[in-house]
C-alpha cells in the first residue's frame, strides 16, 4: 500500500474528523446514491471496499464540518464524496470543489 503524505496530494481543505457519541443516520439521498453505486445493499448494509466491520463501526461515530456543504456531514458520506482524497492523521484531504 502506498503511503501518502499531506503535501503530495492537491487539496483545498484539511478537514478535521470529529467524534460524536451518537450513531448518525445517513440522509436518504446519500443512501440512494450509495445503493446505485453498489456501496450499499438493498437492506442498507454498507459495502465499502477495504473497510473492515470494526472500522465501519468507528466511522459511524465520526463526522466532519464540511466546508463545501457548510454542514455537519457523517464521515461515511464524506468518505464517498467526490471531493474526498485521503484520510491522513485524523483529517480529510478535501478537493473543495462545489457540490450539488
Ligand atoms: S470530501 Fe466532501 S463531504 Fe468531505 S469535507 Fe470535502 S466536500 Fe465535505
State the share of residues found in helices, binned by percent.
10-25%
Q: Structural class, please?
A: alpha+beta
- Model regions low in confidence, pLDDT < 50 over at least 5 residues: none
The assembly state of the depicted protein chains is single chain
Describe this structure in words.
- This protein is an alpha+beta fold and 100 residues long.
- It has one domain.
- 21% of the residues lie in helices and 25% in strands.
- The protein contains three helices and five strands, in the order E-H-H-E-E-H-E-E.
- The longest helix has 9 residues, at 28-36.
- It is globular and about 35 Å long.
- The model has no long low-confidence stretch (mean pLDDT 90).
- Iron/sulfur cluster binds at residues 15, 64, 66, 68-69, 73, 78, 81, 83-84, 92, 94, 99.
